[in-house]
Structure formats: C-alpha cells, structure tokens
Design goal:
Elements (H helix, E strand, L loop, with lengths): L21 H6 L10 E5 L6 E6 L9 E2 L4 E2 L9 E4 L2 E4 L13
Antiparallel strand pairs: 1-2, 3-4, 5-6
Length: 103
C-alpha cells in the first residue's frame, strides 16, 4: 500500500484487518521487519526509537492476544532462544535492553 509508517491510524487499513503473512504486514507499511516481533521508528520530535507495532505469531506459549490487549513475551537476541520439546523458550528473563525498551 505504501502509506508510510507512522504512529496512529493507517489510512486504508481497517481496525481488525487480518494478515496471514508477515510480508503482507510489511508491504502495508505496518511493520518494518518480516522476522522480529517489535517494529520501531524514530520519533519525529527527538529522534529516539519508539515501538510502532508488535506482531504475535503464536511462537511463545505465554504470549496472549485478547483483541483489546496483548501480553507479549518480548524480543530477545537469537543467542537467548532455544527449543524444549519443540516449544520455543528464552534462556533468561526479558530486560529493558535490546528492543524491549522501545515498548
């Protein structure tokens, strides 16, 4: 769609619109990445990084999507990720380092 990413309502995207692939979300300018869960952009006033979107993909059992609110596990460098019996896990608790501080 090429609207350009911003904070707030995106013209041409209805609330509740469903996307079945992350590439669709990126092409709609709703998220900057096709892999990471947290998308960010620079604040227009002071240039600081702020989160503008979160994608939940069902990979972590403690992520919750209740439509009006979400519980998000957070982002973590790849070195912190592993699988236990096929279930994605993180080696340590999340911190305000890495991209979580943008939330």
């Amino acid at each position: 769609m090429g609207n350009g990413r911003k904070i707030g309502h995106i013209s041409g995207i209805d609330p509740g619109a469903e996307f079945h692939r992350r590439l669709q979300v990126k092409r709609a300018d709703l998220h900057r990445d096709t892999v990471r869960g947290i998308s960010w952009l620079a604040d227009e006033e002071d240039g600081s990084d702020v989160a503008d979107a979160i994608v939940l993909h069902g990979g972590y059992e403690d992520d919750e999507d209740h439509w009006t609110w979400v519980r998000y596990t957070g982002a973590s460098p790849d070195v912190d990720k592993y699988k236990e019996n096929g279930v994605p896990k993180l080696r340590r608790s999340q911190s305000w380092a890495y991209q979580d501080m943008l939330l």
